[in-house]
């Protein structure tokens, strides 16, 4: 793209800096009120589901791998639920 290595690294570092700052902000808000913890976790789960449903699932269904992708998703979900219940 015509950028130097230093400029590319700087831009990548600045875009990645948002994550720890957001994490610290979220931890600060949750530490002030325990009642907000379930809402924060629900928001995070919703964001993850959005990324999966709009990015990852369509990509796995492109080249005729619908059955394998759906089976893998189903097995992963059942395994995750089993671990959640068994480990508490």
Any overview of this molecule?
The protein has helices at 5-16, 18-32, 37-60, 66-87. The chain is an all-alpha fold and 88 residues long. The chain is flat, with a radius of gyration of 19 Å. The N and C termini lie far apart (49 Å).
Summarize the structure.
The protein is mostly helical and 88 residues long. The protein has helices at 5-16, 18-32, 37-60, 66-87.
| Largest beta-sheet characterization | none
Name the poorly predicted regions: none
Gap between N and C termini, in Å?
A: 49 Å
Q: Number of helical runs? A: 4
Average pLDDT score: 84
As a percent range, the share of strand residues is under 5%
Helix content range: over 70%
Shape: flat
Q: How much is the radius of gyration in Å?
A: 19 Å
Question: How many strand elements?
Answer: 0
Characteristics of this structure?
single chain; mainly alpha
What topology emerges from the helices and strands here?
Elements: H1 5-16, H2 18-32, H3 37-60, H4 66-87
């Amino acid at each position: 793209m015509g950028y130097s290595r230093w400029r590319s690294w700087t831009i990548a570092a600045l875009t990645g800096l948002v994550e720890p700052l957001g994490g610290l902000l979220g931890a600060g808000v949750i530490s002030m009120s325990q009642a907000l913890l379930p809402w924060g976790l629900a928001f995070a789960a919703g964001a993850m589901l959005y990324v999966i449903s709009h990015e990852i699932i369509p990509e796995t269904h492109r080249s005729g791998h619908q059955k394998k992708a759906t089976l893998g998703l189903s097995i992963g979900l059942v395994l995750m639920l089993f671990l959640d219940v068994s480990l508490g």
